[in-house]
Amino acid sequence: MARIPLCGPDDLETEPKAKAILSAVHDQFGTDFNVIKALANHPDALEAFMALQGEVYTSKRLTPGQTEIAYYTAAVANSCHY
Q: Can you give the pTM of this predicted structure?
């Protein structure tokens, strides 16, 4: 089964743009999320995901109810059971 490699901020192959984002995420949350490390293979996609994450999770433009709807919609659309 093919797997997407997980990039780290200390990996030599990780692009500088991705390294900066990975480091910022680690500094902010104190952990490394596998989805972020996987998206680091494509720094532009990672940057777009982080912009979306910032809008959905931390902006005050969505109510808590709207945020939950976004979570549940994504989970159902992706057949996530957790």
A: 0.70
